[in-house]
Amino acid sequence: MVASPTKCQVIDLSNGTISRTISNPRMNKTDSCEFRACRFGVDYSTGLLYTVVNTVSKKKAIICKWSVLGWSMEFSKAVARKPITSFAQR
Asked: CA torsion, points 35, 55, 84, 46, in degrees to nearest 10?
């Protein structure tokens, strides 16, 4: 996976091609946002992709949960009033 401010790309490791691109993050249809990081779920959350999205205004940080089966966002939650700068899994 590669996350840049405008898109999150999932790369197929078997052949090095881009298998999925999620672009232009926008929350509530009005807040322009930027991707900060992304991680695949492990153990009980296998099959999920988690992304960190910060608003361009730097006033909100959002965690989004995506299903890798249909590549649809299942859930998003504002978690901070400041941008998130790092994202790690246990």
From this structure: -40
